[in-house]
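Escalation from tier 1.

The customer reports that the assembly of two entities below gives different structure tokens on two consecutive runs. Tier 1 could not reproduce it. I'm attaching the input and our single run for tier 2 to review.
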Amino acid sequence: MKNYFEIKNLKVDYRTYEGDQNTLDIEHLVLEKGKCFGLVGESGAGKSVLAQTILGILSTPPGVIKSGEILFNGEDLLAKSEGKLRKIRGKKISMIFQDPMSTLNPVFTVGTQITRVIRQNQRVNKKEAIKRAIEKIELVNMPDAEDILDCYPHELSGGQRQRIIIAIALSCDAELLIADEPTRNLDVTIQAGILKLIARLQKELNVTVLFIANNLGLVSATCDHLAMLHEGKIIEMGTTKEVLHNPHHPYTKAYIEAIPKDAEHSIHLEQIAKGTAAPVNSTGCANISLCLEKEEQCHQLVPPLKPIVGTHFVACHRVHGK
Amino acid sequence: MNETLLQVSALTKHFPILAGFFSRPVAWVKAVDNVNFEVHQGETLGIVGESGCGKTTLVNVLLNLIEPTAGQVIFDGIDLFGCFKKELRELRQHLQIVFQDPFWSLNPRWLVKDIIAEPLDVHLKLKPAELIKRVEELLDMVGLPKDSVYKSPHEFSGGQRQRIAIARALALNPKLLVLDEPTSAIDIFSQAQILALLKDLKKRLNLTYILISHDLSVVHHMSDKIMVMYLGEVVEYGPGDDIFNRPTHPYTKALLSAIPDINTDSLDDISELEGAVPSAINPPKGCRFNTRCSEVMDICSEKKPVASDIGCGHTANCHLL
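Tier 1 run:
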């Protein structure tokens, strides 16, 4: 059976004055249709670079796609021309960007911005586009859709703006939605609403979601599968339960440990010993500077992503499969 | 019980909305309304609330950066708004703040030495050699190497910059440190390190903190007491663990049940709060939360609830009690 969405041996470098820096190195990643896949990592781990590479909006230079394939419905996105990609972007694959405050254009009304996307991708007249825009606004649970079309972004609250952005992303019935930290800069009470909206749309419209986050709580609540990204490499991958309740990689363990809990909880800092970024193109495990359990071979060999049990994969020399 | 360091009574700050040729106030934004609380020496008070609930206005008033409309702030026995300028200058040494975003709060054209030495320059007039010695001491205190003295802010990561901001705030041996979302702009590992550093400094230097954050887990981790604010008013106040184990006000309950953690398996376990925060220009009559409350009664839109004690110094402003 062909996979719905698959990434194979993707390598992305960034050109810097100190040489090419390996920003993304993903051996294999599969998204199942209609599921929510979480991608977790610190800032600088390569989460957004991956999202941009999938959509073909990575700025080159400084980015360079060295090798690899991104297969979407069996077709390689990286081999497609810009013209063909434009037909996929927005129609098939769409993205919600992180900051709802700055994603919308402040000088156009919401209606203009939604209908523009619809008319760009579908051959419809203005009236039909407005009709569809209203449908989409109702889809994201906003009352008075017709009035909202005439609003400027500044007239809406952060949560409302994010709903509009989701409406725009889904305005042409995209199948794959990349949500890049969709609830960053939103209050917790509004965050819950946005998460539920994304989850509902995913089920109703059978959309596949790639959910990018740096908060494990969000991923735990929304995603079926998750991958931990560190220094551009996937270091642990599996179902959300497997990874969060039975983490194997020292980095994942430290990440969970670093979430503050009640007042008695003291974060074990030895585990998060001074984390400095690994030097450009260093050999060995990417986690070397943070790891407490490192061995001789960790310095020399990059650990491969090995299956532990079933769908649970870990990249660590010290963890062995059964 | 330790002595009271900061006492705030009936503190109110309304901002005028000016309009017309003569710029007359046509309406008032009620940013902070009748807030009362005390902070004891060596305690950490956490302030929680949605954006726009008046947290930042409150600390700006506490630090005497803006004048309040009414009310009193007594710091260390001296009225902050009734004292002489000279006294206030003296007091400011003991009231310091760490801002939210270390990418904005440090001047990119200054060296670390200048940034940390600025408060020392203003207040103490030290000799250059003493100044450098003190700066190095402060850097050591926040866990940065001594050779950082002649570096610029851009050479540091987010977490390290926040350390510089903390060093600057500690330069004059303050008694009270206000932390305005100290970790919201930095990564999870840096956050863990900064929180541990703050806890350690508090013990070593006998500091008192007022911590503002929208991240409830950070507040729970750090605070002895927690104050929950909604639309300029305090809705619940009490010991940290008590608030988390026994939330009483519907707003606090809603806030706590809205955060997913790693044990949340499905979105059904978290609940969203319907509607948006009403405008602070015309806040709802009676209880300000009545427009979004799930347990709203008739009395809620008529009478303002008063703080009722529910034991262990835990109070909530709700008609249900």
